[in-house]
Structure formats: structure tokens, C-alpha cells
Amino acid sequence: MSFISRATGRAAAVALAVVLAACASNEEKEDTDPVELVDITASVDLKEVWSAGIGDIDAKLYAMLQPAIGSGKLVAANSEGDVFAFDRTTGKRQWKTELDVEISGGVGVGLGIAVVADYRGRAVALDLNDGSELWTYQVSGEVVSAPAVGAGVVVLQTVDGKLIGLDAASGEERWSHSTVLPVLTLRGTAAPVISGGIVIAGLDNGKLIALDARDGVPRWEQRVAIPQGSAELERVVDIDGTPVVRGDLVFAASYQGRAVALSREDGRGLWARDASTHHSVAVGAGNVYLSDASGSVYAYNVGNGQIVWSNNELLRRELSGPAYFGDVVVVGDLEGYLHILDPGNGHFVGRERIDSDRIRIPLLVDGDLLFALSDDGELVALRLERRQ
């Protein structure tokens, strides 16, 4: 990931590694290489069910092309404009649509459509049955996260600080909401989510906001992170991970800020703990899991936020966000490995390599399958199996 200045645009992006080195401890400054993996005793395996090559994902401009599932189909896109639908279970390709756009944001699925967007802010809706184009809409800025689809709307979040609600059937704009952005932010935006008729979005200013999906009227706003320090780099507190809704609670985390649990109804805080990540958290087995900017993995008690365990054996391996799958926690890394952790104590219980390229895009869990997509477009469906 990189940083981008609002004053100078994309040309001012600064490599995240440089910033992390500047902010790290003296010990970490002396060793910037990823830690070497050590041998483990595996008790579980991630067995490949099917795989497909879909083409490259633009990692330099931080395209977050997470696949999505709807109506028994997994829909995935590459950065060159190709959108694919596969049978979720068998991997058989159902359709392929070639769009004349460089896809940067997607995929959002729901209400019988699949939606992607490009660097110029063009959103495209496709029929989930056959991939035919239904409508397009031009927004004001780049979209580098997945649209949310539900409650009759498609919600896009742009890099220039807008949330836009489009009618899911026609593509016409229903509402928009603007936010004043900091001078410097991470290159990326959180994907909004729709739950119970409410749109919940993480913002680049370190806040979570909830809007009515019908008309965009704000329901509540809550600060997750408070900018610290005098330098702009020190004050970056973006929320780039998608908020996670579980029942009446919303879980989220920011860069150089905190991990929090909030009430979905009114945004009231349940707990908050210092944290730094540009990924989503995961929830399961009574814990909230987070992979931080340094490569450590943490588990927080879901009820009070107390740290249950931490794993520091993957430092500087550029981890993906965690996924709770079956009864294990899974994170991807820069060399295409999936690391499997015990949710009770954080110990390694397995490891699987699906590619030689980085697994950066959020892992997708759907029932008994885990889907991983590497930056060079290797899409893999995996099933968890215990060793005898």
C-alpha cells in the first residue's frame, strides 16, 4: 500500500514500506526483511477444490478486487476489464464479460447483479445470470473498493471522500454524502456494507459513519482513531478495512489508531484497543482477529476487547487481513502462503502455498469453502480437512 496526498494527487504516492520504517522501533529498523518461515507440525490442511487463472490484479495502484458470491456463483474480476462467474462448488465457468475499463473496485454482488468500477469512477452493473451489461454510472472519483449491494441500492465509496447510493435496478443516483478528507491518506478505501437497511462505512479521517440506505441520511458517526503527532504521516488514521457486522455489533480498525466494537443501532462504543492495520478484522469463536501493519496477528475478546493472544512469527511478511474459516484463522502473505492458526492460542496448525505471488486481497469465506486470490490472478477454492 502507499500514501497519497490530497494536494498533489496520485503522483504524490509514497511507498508504505518507507513510512513504516520511519515509524518503526529501532529494532525493526535494523531488520526490514520478512522473517523466515520455520517448520511447523500441521494438524489441518487446506485442500484445493478448484482453481482458475483470471489475469493480473493491479497491486501498484492497490486495486482490491475481492471476489463475491451470489446465487451459487462466485464472481471475480481482473484489472484489465474481465469479469468472470464460476460455479461456486465446481469452479465451472458460467460466463465471462470483457469490459472496456481498467477495473479497480469490485466485486459487489446482490439483487441479481454484479457491480464493478474503474479508476475513472465508472460503475458497471452486470446481470448475474449471464453477465450482460445492465447500466453504467459515472461518479466523481476513483473507486478502489467493492461496492455494497442491498436494500435496493448500490453504494460506492470514492477516493475523494464520497459515498454514493445508486438505484440497483436503474443505476440512477438516489443520494450522496461527502466527507472532508485529511491532507494525507493511505492509498485505498474501505468497502461499505449494508445491514438492516443501514449503510456502514469506514472513512479516511478515522471515523465510522452509518447512513440510511434509502436516502443517505446520517444515522450516527463515531470516531475510531484520533490523529496523533505533528507530522502529517503520524496523523494518518485511515479505516481501509471493511467494517464487520455481527448481530447488533460493528467491528472495525484503523491504521495508527484503534480496533473497536460499536453498537450497530447508534454507534455507541463497547470497547476500543490500540491497533494499526489497513485490513478488515475477522470475528469467530468469541474473538476478533486482526493482522497489524507489522505482521503480527492478534485476537481480542469479542465482549471486552482484552487481548487473548498474539502471534509475532510473521513479521514483515505483508499479511492479508485474517479470515475465520471453519474453526481456524487464516492469513495470506507476500509469498503466496496461507497460514492457519488456532483461534484459541494463535499457534500455527497448518500452512498451504497456493501461489508464488502475494495474497493481498481479502480472503472470502462462504460456508465450507475458503476463496483466495493472489495478485497474479490465481483464484483458489479450498476446503479445511483435519489430519488423522
Rounded radius of gyration (Å): 19 Å
Shape: globular
Count of individual beta strands: 36
Give the strand content.
over 45%
Largest sheet: 5 strands, mixed
* CATH C-level name: Mainly Beta
* DSSP summary: helix tally: 2
**CA-CA gap between termini:** 40 Å
Please state the structural category: mainly beta
Task: Report the CATH architecture.
Answer: 7 Propeller
Can you characterise this structure?
By secondary structure, the chain is mainly beta. The protein has a single domain (2-386), classed as 7 Propeller (Methylamine Dehydrogenase, Chain H). Helix content is 3%, strand content 48%. It contains two helices and 36 strands. The chain has helices spanning 16-23, 26-29; strands at residues 2-5, 9-15, 44-53, 64-65, 68-70, 73-77, 82-87, 93-98, 103-110, 113-118, 122-127, 133-138, 148-150, 153-157, 162-167, 173-178, 184-186, 193-195, 198-202, 207-212, 218-223, 244-246, 249-253, 257-263, 269-275, 282-284, 287-291, 297-301, 307-311, 323-325, 328-332, 337-341, 348-353, 364-366, 369-373, 378-386. The strands form nine sheets. A five-stranded mixed β-sheet has the order 4-9-10-11-12, with no helix packed on it. A four-stranded antiparallel β-sheet has the order 3-36-35-34, with no helix packed on it. The protein has a four-stranded antiparallel β-sheet with strand order 5-6-7-8, with no helix packed on it. The longest helix has 8 residues, at 16-23. It starts with a strand and ends with a strand.
